[in-house]
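Aim 2 progress update. The chain analyzed this quarter is reproduced below.
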Amino acid sequence: MLGDVYKRQGKYLIINKQEIISEFASKTGDVGSSKVQIAILTKKIEILTKHVQKFKKDNSSRRGLLLMIERRRKLLSYIKKKDSAVYLEILTKLGLRK
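Predicted structure tokens:
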């Protein structure tokens, strides 16, 4: 997986996007490819999942979490149609299930 790519700044968790981009980029300057977007969304989902588990009545954050999960699901289905080898590589790197 990605290790510690987020740090605590005050009461907020900050994601180190540059580390994620460097690991998942196909070439230098690749910041918007589907692989990079999925990796960043996965880290955001992990952080927001912990928050929603702690604050069960925070429905606005829960809605945001569901929207992020849906966006990641759509990106994953796009990559699966485009190149199944890359799809399986992303799943194993991020520790996601099919």
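Residues 59-82 form the longest helix (24 residues). Strands lie at 6-9, 12-15. These observations will guide the mutagenesis experiments scheduled for the next reporting period.
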